[in-house]
Amino acid sequence: MEFPSLVFLFSLLLLLLQFPPCRSSYHDYQDALTKSILFFEGQRSGFLPQDQRLTWRANSGLSDGWMYNTDLTGGYHDAGDNVKFGFPMAFTTTMLAWSVIEFGDMMPSSDRRNALVAIRWATDFLLKMVSQPNRIFVQVGDPNVDHSCWERPEDMDTPRTVYAVDAPNPASDVAAETAAALAASSMAFRSSDPGYAETLLRNAITAFQFADNYRGAYSDNSNIRDGACPFYCDFSGYQDELLWGAAWLRRASQDNSYLSYIENNGKTLGADDNINEFGWDNKHAGLNVLVSKEVLEGNMYTLQSYKASADSFMCTLIPESSSSHIEYTPGGLIYKPGGSNLQHATSISFLLLVYANYLDRTSQALNCGNVIVAPNHLRLQAKKQVDYILGDNPKGLSYMVGYSNYYPQRIHHRGSSLPSTKDHPQFISCKEGSVYFNSTDPNPNVLVGAVVGGPGDDDGYEDDRVDFRKSEPTTYINAPFVGVLAYLAANPNIS
């Protein structure tokens, strides 16, 4: 009787080996949360502190701002390059802060502390960006030259051009997103550092005044366009950022003037437009979810159109809904064309969880016409996206670097792919790095917690450093993921 059972066990083992090791219904969300925050230390620019945990990084960009006789050191590189783009950095900061506001109480104290450190690394820099009257700095580094090099941040010898917008030239998008970031961050710091929180809120108000007084897109300025475009042009218009900034100032300050701004400017600033997008360029879906909190908890009937738009957006994400029209890959990942797709999956998952909580707290459900959707169903949709990213996908691959034993080894990231200054202290010039870029070897430095751009619409992913649309991590992919993982780490058994 023992022999057949051994055959059975051997056959079962062979069957199991056909599947990659990451494919599992269980994920360590707590581990993923810790690593998602750690990632930001790999993106730091400036003088690194003694407690820097990703020790293959070192000081960089220490002369940033010299051409304006201004200290513009610090902040984050947005992705795998060495430029500091203010627009996506501000959005990243807003989302990190929103993650702490909504889900910080669910984080272990060490993760919450490190999340606040990650926020402050950005806000300290954003405060410098708005430190001069009637001027906002929007970018440091010439991206065209930077992108022609494959160079460690520590070796940068490309022009650290400073891009600034002076009144009355417009920069509504960057200034209003900066206002949102500072306002949201003031809430995140309110209990632990009220003095810093007050500084953030005061500067948020000033940044918003600049945004509203001089209306227009920053990338329409001729002296900015060549630096911002085609990388972080304002493609969707600046109007959504004005409403988004006002909504965050309303939430942070409880000042009714911002409530009136949202009420009175909604139509003229296109609050009903493009409701199915949320990311560094288009804030509409996030704006509607954020403002819906006022409606759900305060009976603000004058803001009902924002909640209606939020409901409409959520219904598009529910496969059972008659209004469902979002595209999914065969493996179940939310997909939007254009590259760096996981930014959509993480930001939309964040909104699903936040809106589910807003509905839950007010004992409401989502009416999608042909189906009534309970808050937990929204959470389940978010969990499916997270599980896909962490390994439950046709490739069996974790798209978070350093999570599980099977993750991308050749990400499109200069600091990760070049030997560290500790291992190779000699200077590596602009073109000398090409040999590392073109190498098929795994990156020598593991950028723990980085979430890459992700697979294509067919779930396909080649571990290829050259394919930046799929293999490059960004701060704005990770920022909303911090909040999502915090929720799932505390509530792993959604069903």
UniProtKB/TrEMBL annotation:
<dbReference type="InterPro" id="IPR012341">
    <property type="entry name" value="6hp_glycosidase-like_sf"/>
</dbReference>
<dbReference type="InterPro" id="IPR008928">
    <property type="entry name" value="6-hairpin_glycosidase_sf"/>
</dbReference>
<keyword id="KW-0326">Glycosidase</keyword>
<dbReference type="GO" id="GO:0030245">
    <property type="term" value="P:cellulose catabolic process"/>
</dbReference>
<dbReference type="Pfam" id="PF00759">
    <property type="entry name" value="Glyco_hydro_9"/>
</dbReference>
<keyword id="KW-0732">Signal</keyword>
<protein>
    <recommendedName>
        <fullName>Endoglucanase</fullName>
        <ecNumber>3.2.1.4</ecNumber>
    </recommendedName>
</protein>
<dbReference type="InterPro" id="IPR001701">
    <property type="entry name" value="Glyco_hydro_9"/>
</dbReference>
<feature type="active site">
    <location>
        <position position="463"/>
    </location>
</feature>
<keyword id="KW-0136">Cellulose degradation</keyword>
<dbReference type="InterPro" id="IPR018221">
    <property type="entry name" value="Glyco_hydro_9_His_AS"/>
</dbReference>
<feature type="domain" description="Glycoside hydrolase family 9">
    <location>
        <begin position="29"/>
        <end position="485"/>
    </location>
</feature>
<keyword id="KW-0624">Polysaccharide degradation</keyword>
<feature type="active site">
    <location>
        <position position="472"/>
    </location>
</feature>
<dbReference type="InterPro" id="IPR033126">
    <property type="entry name" value="Glyco_hydro_9_Asp/Glu_AS"/>
</dbReference>
<keyword id="KW-0119">Carbohydrate metabolism</keyword>
<dbReference type="GO" id="GO:0008810">
    <property type="term" value="F:cellulase activity"/>
</dbReference>
<feature type="active site">
    <location>
        <position position="412"/>
    </location>
</feature>
<comment type="similarity">
    <text>Belongs to the glycosyl hydrolase 9 (cellulase E) family.</text>
</comment>
<feature type="signal peptide">
    <location>
        <begin position="1"/>
        <end position="24"/>
    </location>
</feature>
<keyword id="KW-0378">Hydrolase</keyword>
